[in-house]
Amino acid sequence: MSLDTEDITETPERVLVLNRVFDAPRALVFKAWTEPEHLARWWGCETTAITKFIGDFRAGGEFRVSMRLSDGIEHRLQGVYRVFDRPECLSFTWAWEEEDGSPGHETLVTVTFTEQNGKTAMALHQAIFDSEKVRDEHHEGWSVGLDRLADLLAALPNA
User: Fold this and answer.
1) 109 with 94: CB under 8 angstroms?
2) How many structural domains are present in the chain?
């Protein structure tokens, strides 16, 4: 399927931007984004269990995630890290897998981490969604996940 210009234009309706400040040092927040044992504790919504997280945490490295919702439905996600700049920035592709294992619509997620008086300001940008509805679903999922990340960071030693 070929894309026409309208399909790849970034418009506000097809972009997700989230900003958070975490009461934790930047190195710890970055660690929580890049270590599978931490990711499994916060990534996804409250009814999600990460059943598998395989990641090659470096620029060019691939990752795959399997998530099971409380209703038993399994969702699979895949991507490639484009930027892995510890502890300042992560950028990676994001595509839900189709039933046959092929990647679906791909977006690019960029997360920046800025030290702010012992806390960490995080900015997440994800685009370009294929619809406003899908963008809103991701907004809900990321919002819950980031709340869970704040709880995890509060429980982790600041090492």
Assistant:
1) yes
2) 1
Determine the Cα–Cα distance for residues 35 and 39; give it in Å rounded to an integer: 6
Q: Any residues with CB less than 8 A from the CB of 125 and at least 6 apart, and which?
A: 15, 16, 17, 109, 110, 111
Please tell me the distance from the alpha carbon of residue 150 to that of residue 128, in angstroms, as a whole number.
Answer: 26
The residue segments making up the domain with residue 111 are 13-155
| pTM given for the model | 0.90
- Of the candidates 70, 146, 80, 77, the residue with the CA atom closest to the CA atom of residue 113: 146
pLDDT digits (tens, 9 = 90+) for 5-48: 344 556 788 999 999 999 999 999 999 999 999 999 999 877 88
Is residue 44 within 8 Å of residue 53, measured between CB atoms? no
